[in-house]
Task: inverse folding
DNA sequence: TCCTCCCGCCAAGCA
DNA sequence: TGCTTGGCGGGAGGA
């Protein structure tokens, strides 16, 4: 045995690649007839490095040595076996990890550039690859199939593929996302999660029927391989094993990430969905295991592509392997896509022409007759929500709805919803970007007089909210958003550390998502900010690195100019800190210099009052005198009412259309949980008249996922038990691991600091509190300030410019942990 | 013990 | 008919 002349650590991979049969760290045996291109000389090492960088050189070298290599390897192997004892030989073999598909895929990918120039097509010869990487052909197929599913390669002929690199990736992901939405993967995931909570996985026939019904829609639209225009699919077995192929599985797997929020998919759920789509073949364990195996194969390749990353989701039932999407965010429309592309350094700009888009959609929906992009499902949902909301407002008096424990159990989807509520906002973003016709339709469904149809000029003006930002922003300056219809502007005070997202505002659309604006950053870098919308929304598990994100509400504003809204802010600043404006321990330094008013919020335009005329509201607002019946609609009263937690009892939420901002609840501090309303909650202090505040509240809570659809929160809930908030401190931040814990108290505040027409709603996690009596965990989720009397909650200062309502949302304790390996 | 996934059999499909 | 492609599941390494 000869010692290599030089063997540097950095060349280890290359060496392994070249000679996988030799243990990389041991002295490789050397045949007596050493060829001139001995890999163990510095020169040959250099050659190998060059070769690794240049496929052409490598191929040439490879061809030259091809004839010798096989016999060499065999000889080497024999040589090793001869020189080493059985155990030693076994040890000398590369470990399982070194032979993993992921590593192999890394090697494979290293051979080709991410973005090959279109003029220079890279061809992949499977024989060469298998020889070069010293792997079985079979393994290469695994890799190639997944790459093919992403259109990173395409099959040219037998044994021959073309390397496209990542050029097609954005388009592919966009296409996959759309198909995923079409196939209602979100619902499927939710159905599966629901069943998980209800029963253990049990492949009985009854269950299969249930599954069958839940997957009915996807069966009808049995999906084949999603192609892109110009990237044809020429699989060898196009007709036969097409539907079970790794390609299709891979695409579906990716779709699951693209449609779900947060973009974490457990293998179990993915496998069940894939099984479900396979014509509901027996959900026996062997099939399930097989799917899981294949998903691991796919996941390994996707991980090598850095599209996903392995994590673990810990729930009550244990720790589950899952994967988290780490690839580029896919935004639904061209505009967003372009923004995304420009702000994603790893991707080249997407130049997607309309025609290619049409082609793409045709390719994506070949089996369906009508695949026009008519109305987005989220938009329909919104319309329904609004309709329901209005109906609720106009009909039955609000009475508490008790949710039984069984209901609690039957709402397994809900726990994830709160973690996903940023995605709801995102979803609305998508809806917002739909056509003007849709907007008008939506407007028509709402109060027409309150919501004037947007004119194009206004639209365009309003689509640039950032452009009207004050020229200079301190960390606490408001972001002014114009509102031409009302002649007033919206001002949003945000903390730069926790506000990252900005999107357009269109007044005709009643439920505009208006994510937080980074006051310091929005002017300079819109696209980046926009890009962050999705990446941060999708990752609700974030937290350790963003300790201040949700805590900015605890800070106070610092005003600069004397706009009306800012006067309000100033006023509030002068007020003593109440229980809702707390200082967070970890945030003390930043508090010294930067003060922020709202962490985020629901922008509630009071002009959209559905009951009573605007004038009426306005008058009453100014008068500061609100009848009980109108309390909910009417005026904000000046000043933040300082209220200790012990006094928090009631809340009144104006029954106006709520424009959700991006509510930046601390990802650590909340997690999805069913919310149990308290049957004891009474509304005796309110009149029996329909109380729109409950509708708005319900709408808002449903909308952000704090309560499931259909569940009603009483109009004027009164705190009867103190929620347990001791869990607030139990946020663990271990490196690489983020816990999302429930058992939190989320306090919320309604402000109207902007003007009489607008409300802001903000949520923030409560600061750690002393442990309180635990008996009411499941009975209370809601407590509000101001005492049992509704008016007292709304009354405060009477200068008619500001009012605050505060309350607390209790998230029952439950743990959902996502940890990264 | 369970997770992870390598490995290779073998059948379908293609040239 | 031989070769390519790839579904599939046993079973072993690793945590």
Result:
């Amino acid at each position: 045995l000869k010692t290599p002349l030089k063997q540097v650590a950095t060349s280890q991979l290359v060496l392994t690649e070249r000679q996988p049969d030799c243990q990389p760290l041991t002295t490789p045996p050397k045949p007596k007839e050493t060829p001139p291109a001995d890999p163990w000389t510095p020169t040959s090492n250099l050659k190998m490095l060059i070769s690794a960088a240049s496929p052409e050189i490598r191929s040439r070298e490879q061809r030259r040595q091809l004839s010798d290599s096989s016999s060499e390897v065999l000889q080497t192997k024999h040589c090793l076996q001869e020189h080493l004892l059985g155990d030693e030989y076994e040890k000398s073999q590369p470990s399982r990890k070194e032979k993993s598909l992921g590593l192999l895929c890394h090697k494979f990918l290293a051979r080709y550039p991410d973005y090959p120039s279109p003029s220079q097509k890279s061809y992949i010869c499977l024989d060469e690859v298998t020889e070069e990487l010293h792997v079985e052909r079979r393994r290469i197929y695994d890799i190639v199939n997944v790459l093919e599913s992403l259109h990173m390669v395409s099959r040219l002929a037998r044994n021959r593929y073309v390397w496209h690199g990542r050029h097609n990736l954005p388009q592919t992901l966009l296409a996959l996302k759309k198909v995923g939405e079409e196939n209602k993967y979100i619902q499927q995931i939710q159905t599966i999660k629901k069943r998980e909570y209800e029963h253990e996985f049990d492949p009985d026939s009854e269950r299969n029927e249930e599954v069958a019904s839940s997957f009915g829609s996807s069966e009808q639209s049995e999906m084949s391989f999603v192609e892109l225009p110009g990237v044809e699919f020429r699989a060898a077995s196009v007709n036969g094993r097409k539907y079970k192929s790794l390609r299709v599985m891979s695409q579906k797997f990716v779709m699951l990430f693209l449609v779900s929020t947060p973009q974490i998919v457990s293998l179990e759920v993915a496998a069940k969905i894939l099984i479900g789509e396979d014509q509901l073949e027996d959900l026996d364990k062997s099939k399930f295991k097989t799917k899981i195996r294949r998903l691991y194969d796919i996941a390994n390749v996707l991980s090598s592509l850095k599209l996903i990353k392995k994590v673990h989701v810990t729930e009550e039932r244990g720790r589950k392997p899952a994967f988290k999407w780490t690839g580029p965010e896919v935004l639904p429309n061209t505009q967003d896509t372009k923004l995304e592309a420009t702000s994603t350094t790893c991707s080249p700009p997407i130049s997607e022409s309309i025609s290619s888009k049409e082609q793409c959609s045709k390719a994506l929906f070949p089996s369906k007759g009508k695949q026009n992009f008519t109305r987005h499902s989220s938009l329909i949902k919104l319309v329904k929500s609004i309709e329901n909301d209005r109906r609720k407002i106009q009909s039955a008096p609000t009475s508490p709805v008790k949710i039984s424990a069984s209901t609690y159990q039957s709402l397994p989807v809900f726990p994830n919803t709160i973690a996903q509520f940023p995605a709801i906002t995102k979803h609305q973003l998508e809806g917002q970007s739909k056509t003007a016709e849709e907007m008008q339709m939506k407007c028509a469904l709402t109060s027409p007089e309150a919501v004037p149809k947007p004119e194009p000029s206004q639209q365009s003006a309003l689509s640039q909210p950032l452009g009207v930002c004050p020229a200079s922003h301190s960390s606490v300056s408001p972001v002014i958003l114009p509102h031409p219809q009302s002649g007033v502007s919206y001002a949003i005070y945000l903390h730069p550390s926790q506000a990252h997202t900005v999107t357009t505002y269109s007044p005709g659309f009643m439920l505009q998502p208006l994510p937080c604006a980074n006051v310091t950053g929005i002017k300079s870098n819109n696209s980046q900010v926009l890009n962050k919308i999705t990446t941060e929304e999708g990752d609700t598990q974030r937290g350790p690195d963003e300790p201040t994100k949700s805590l900015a509400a605890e800070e106070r504003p610092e005003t600069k100019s004397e706009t009306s809204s800012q006067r309000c802010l100033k006023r509030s600043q002068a007020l003593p800190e109440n229980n809702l404006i707390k200082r967070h321990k970890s945030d003390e330094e930043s508090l010294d210099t930067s003060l922020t008013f709202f962490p985020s919020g629901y922008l509630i335009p009071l002009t959209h009052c559905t009951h009573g005329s605007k004038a009426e509201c306005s008058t009453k607002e100014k008068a500061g005198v609100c009848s009980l019946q109108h309390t909910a609609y009417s005026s904000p009263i000046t000043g933040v009412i300082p209220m200790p937690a012990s006094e928090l009892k009631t809340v009144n939420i104006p029954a106006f259309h709520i424009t959700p901002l991006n509510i930046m609840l601390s990802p650590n501090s909340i997690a999805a949980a069913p919310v149990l309303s308290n049957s004891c909650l009474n509304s005796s202090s309110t009149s029996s008249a329909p109380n729109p505040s409950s509708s708005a509240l319900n709408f808002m809570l449903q909308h952000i996922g704090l309560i499931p659809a259909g569940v009603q929160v009483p109009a004027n809930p009164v705190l009867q038990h103190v929620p347990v908030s001791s869990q607030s401190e139990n946020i663990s931040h271990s490196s690489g691991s983020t816990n999302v814990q429930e058992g939190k108290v989320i306090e919320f505040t309604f402000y109207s600091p902007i003007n009489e027409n607008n409300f802001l709603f903000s949520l923030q996690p409560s600061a750690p509190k002393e442990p309180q009596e635990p008996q009411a965990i499941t009975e209370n989720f809601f407590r509000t300030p101001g005492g049992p009397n509704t008016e007292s909650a709304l009354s405060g200062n009477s200068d008619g410019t500001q009012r605050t309502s505060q309350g607390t949302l209790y998230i029952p304790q439950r743990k959902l942990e996502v940890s990264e390996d």
